[in-house]
Design a protein that fits this description.
With 334 residues, this protein is of the alpha+beta class. Helices cover 49% and strands 17% of the residues. The chain contains 10 helices and 9 strands. The strands form 2 sheets. Strands 3, 4, 5, 6, 7, 8 and 9 form a 7-stranded mixed beta sheet that branches. A two-stranded antiparallel sheet has the order 1-2. A hairpin with a 5-residue loop joins strand 1 and strand 2. The longest helix is centred in the C-terminal third of the chain and has 30 residues, at 226-255. The protein starts with a strand and ends with a helix. This is Acyl-CoA dehydrogenase family protein. Residues 16-36 have a biased composition (Low complexity).
Length: 334
């Protein structure tokens, strides 16, 4: 990782779109980012922001690859994502379909095999490996799997929305595919890094809407567009606040990376605010530019569609309710 400074003087990563570029092929030499809590978490989050500002779908895939590396560093017994590999993190657990893990009939009984179908897998046909949750005695556990095994098949054909279509998100079937456990039965969800990663996703959402700033600036620069200038000012203020929030959250993580409860509250706060900022920015930009670019500019229309789908990873009022419950139970001021 090479440190640099972004155009507004904030420490960042050389080449803002570099994280996104790693998704196009599993390159011989990886682009690596500082790990959460390593003392340079702001650089990590701002690189994720820049990746989605360049291309929302590619940046989202890059975030998962970097998240997999962070998960392995935290609970993976020394393994890290290697050069020439590109990883997904497939951990959605809807009621069905279900992916099961069973003990393999090997000599020492330590191996595992995966059978079933995993939904909501991004990077189908592009990822070389994945961290996957699979059920063991009815409860999810995290496994690492090489997706190049012949027992792995997948399809994104059921995805009908133009938003995030380029992420190739779909269902993946596993037929007796070898896998390796990562951490203990509850380590994936109980670790502080789960919540640090949630802040990284919020940085991606915000990077996605930051890409709309340039669209709005072009409109506002034209003669006789005073209302567009007002919208531009509002968007600039919103994105500045968002950037300060991400940098502040990163500083808190670096100060105490091991406090899981603080990490959970922080992530819920950041994601709630980020979701609302994204909606606000999209509203400002849409009102300023009108229907023309949304109907006739493919890049603008794609970004609006991508952000609309991507930000729905936020659980909205359910997360706000959860945050309220946690704060009442804690009984302290923000």
């Amino acid at each position: 990782m090479t440190g640099s400074t972004t155009s507004d003087g904030v420490p960042g990563i050389s080449g803002g779109a570099a994280p996104a570029s790693t998704t196009r092929t599993a390159r011989a030499t990886r682009t690596t980012l500082p790990l959460p809590g390593s003392g340079d978490t702001a650089a990590r989050f701002l690189a994720l922001w820049d990746g989605c500002r360049a291309d929302v779908s590619e940046g989202r895939l890059a975030e998962a690859d970097h998240d997999a590396d962070a998960i392995l560093a935290e609970i993976g017994d020394g393994r890290r994502v290697a050069d020439g590999e590109f990883w997904g993190v497939w951990a959605a657990e809807p009621p069905h379909p279900v992916l099961e893990a069973r003990r393999a009939a090997d000599t020492d009984g330590s191996g595992w095999l995966l059978d079933g179908v995993k939904p909501w897998c991004s990077g189908v046909g592009r990822c070389t490996h994945a961290l996957v949750t699979a059920r063991v005695d009815g409860k999810p556990r995290l496994f690492a799997v090489d997706l190049r095994h012949p027992g792995v098949t997948g399809s994104a054909d059921a995805w009908v929305n133009a938003g995030m279509a380029a992420t190739a998100t779909g269902e993946v079937a596993f037929d007796a595919v070898p896998a390796v456990t990562v951490g203990g039965p509850r380590d994936y969800l109980d670790r502080p890094g789960f919540w640090h990663g949630g802040v990284g996703v919020a940085a991606c959402w915000l990077g996605g809407v930051a890409g709309l700033y340039d669209v709005l600036a072009r409109t506002a620069s034209r003669h006789g567009k005073p209302h567009a200038l007002a919208h531009l000012g509002a968007v600039d203020a919103a994105l500045a606040n968002a950037r300060w929030m991400i940098i502040g959250a990163a500083a808190e993580i670096d100060a105490d990376p091991g406090d899981a409860e603080a990490a959970r509250i922080r992530a819920l706060r950041v994601r709630t605010v980020a979701d609302r900022i994204c909606a606000d920015v999209m509203d400002h930009v849409g009102r300023a530019i009108g229907a023309g670019p949304l109907a006739h500019d493919a890049d603008v229309a794609q970004r609006f569609a991508d952000i609309a789908v991507y930000t729905r990873q936020c659980h909205a009022e359910r997360d706000e309710q959860w945050l309220g419950e946690l704060r009442l139970a804690e009984g302290s001021a923000p």
